[in-house]
Design goal:
The chain is of the alpha/beta class and about 450 residues long. It contains 19 helices and 14 strands. α2 runs parallel beside α3 (about 65-80), α6 runs parallel beside α7 (about 190-200) and α14 (about 350-355) packs parallel to α16 (about 395-400).
Length: about 450
């Protein structure tokens, strides 16, 4: 019963309370009943109510609807997003219409139609949850703005709680002089997080040098990272400054560190341990002071077990790990990113659904490229799912894989136990997710 939505029924007629309670209980709701406005206000203050069904009169000799009007406005003061459905006789219809204009969700006449009432409740509960979530997002955005006042976010665009946690941690570790390892899929925004760490550190005025370690040929790794004297190898006509030397006093960002060859890993380990190196073709030992931020899309622990990555280098690089979630696990970022890439454009509801259901294997980079294509091919008008070359939400949902126990547990951790967001990750209803959690023995 803990997972059932609580529906508060307020009516001084016990027959009405019993009939509505039975109807709601049969259809999976948790009815909470009371006979007076005072009791109703107390319940709404101290219980999590999803919707209120309230009568318009609570005294035997009253038919004006004034008591119902007063209760409605008091409920609105406690929770402006709480859906309220008015139960009214025809004599109070004008009052009910007035309250609907003032924000009541709907009204039903006595006697009511069970199926119509259930449909109304189902729709309003979903809308109420959406309104509550939107209010939460707005509050989080305000809190984020206050928390990040004075911070340099390097132009990173995000709106999700998942990215909020990553950014908060990046700002926290920025002030510590320790190596940072950023993990995540290609195109998820690892470089942006690295820039946030650098721009908010004491080294922000110093160089920020980027190098794709995995793209370096094994025979040029040493010269690229540490430099080379003129004549050190064929084609080296002048002295070349290496990336470590260029980053001296600042930050070196080593991207795709998991693709670095074992020979390159060994040479990198030495300079990380001592700060010392020699240019190719030189015997003079040089020393630098560099903060290293590395990034990878690989599972380095698995690579260590398979002999593809040095364990000692891993622990040297990974003092603090920042894990950037893929775009499919931070769906609240999608509208914000589209507003950034295509300012002033409106999304159709169907397009927004399709965007949320799409798996985004290319992450933010894939979405950015889609927006660039739209900017050229459809520079005006409301954005549709077809503009992004996406399947419909229904097609995408059908193709989503059946989540495993590990998938659900990971998403529960990511969303801090918010079942609505976990269900949305997998394109499931809450009820369908609860069934799978019970099947796997996952506590909630």
């Amino acid at each position: 019963m803990d997972n059932m939505k609580k529906i508060l029924i307020v009516d001084d007629n016990t027959a009405v309370l019993e009939a509505l309670s039975l109807l709601l209980e049969i259809h999976g709701y948790h009815p909470v009943v009371c006979e007076t406005p005072t009791e109703a206000l107390h319940i709404v203050r101290y219980q999590r109510i999803a919707l209120v069904l309230q009568d318009m009169n609570f005294s035997a000799d009253t038919t004006s609807g004034e008591e119902g009007r007063a209760l409605f406005y008091q409920l609105r003061e406690i929770n402006p997003h709480l859906p309220v459905v008015l139960i009214t006789a025809w004599t109070e219809l004008s009052t009910a219409v007035e309250l609907v204009k003032a924000g009541a969700a709907d009204y039903i006449g006595k006697p009511w139609d069970d199926q119509k009432l259930l449909t109304t409740i189902e729709n309003l509960v979903a809308l109420g949850e959406a309104a509550s979530e939107n209010a939460t997002f707005k509050r989080q955005a305000q809190e984020r703005s206050q928390a990040h006042a004075g911070a340099d976010l390097a132009g990173l665009v995000f709106a999700s709680a998942a990215m909020q946690r990553v950014v908060d941690m990046a700002l926290q570790v920025a002030h510590a002089d320790v190596p940072v390892l950023i993990t995540g899929a290609n195109g998820s925004g690892k470089e942006g997080i690295a820039e946030i760490v650098h721009r908010n550190s004491v080294l922000k005025a110093q160089p920020f040098i980027k190098v794709n370690a995995g793209a370096l040929p094994s025979d040029l790794i040493e010269a690229e990272l540490f430099g080379a004297e003129a004549g050190a190898f064929t084609g080296a006509k002048t002295t070349r400054i290496g990336r470590f030397e260029a980053a001296d006093g600042g930050t070196l960002f080593l991207d795709e560190i998991g693709n670095l060859s074992l020979d390159g890993q060994m040479k990198l380990l030495r300079v990380l341990q001592s700060g010392e190196f020699e240019r190719v073709g030189s015997t003079q030992t040089r020393k630098v002071s560099v903060r290293v931020i590395s990034a990878t899309n690989a599972d380095l622990r698995s690579d260590i077990q398979q002999g593809r990555f040095r364990e000692d280098l891993y622990y040297r690089l990974n003092v603090i790990e920042l894990a950037v979630p893929p775009l499919c696990q931070r769906q609240d970022d999608i509208p914000a990113l589209i507003a950034h890439f295509l300012p002033g454009r409106e999304l159709s509801p169907h397009a927004e659904q399709a965007l949320r259901y799409h798996s985004w294997p290319g992450n933010v980079r894939e979405l950015e490229n889609a927006c660039k294509r739209i900017a050229v091919l459809k520079p005006q008008g409301e954005l549709q799912a077809d503009d992004f070359a996406l399947q419909s939400a229904e097609q995408a949902q059908m193709q989503k894989h059946e989540p495993s126990k590990q998938d659900i547990e990971h998403s529960m951790r990511l969303h801090q136990g918010v079942v609505a967001k976990v269900a949305r990750d997998f394109g499931l209803s809450r009820q369908a997710l609860y069934r799978r959690m019970q099947k796997f023995g996952i506590e909630y």
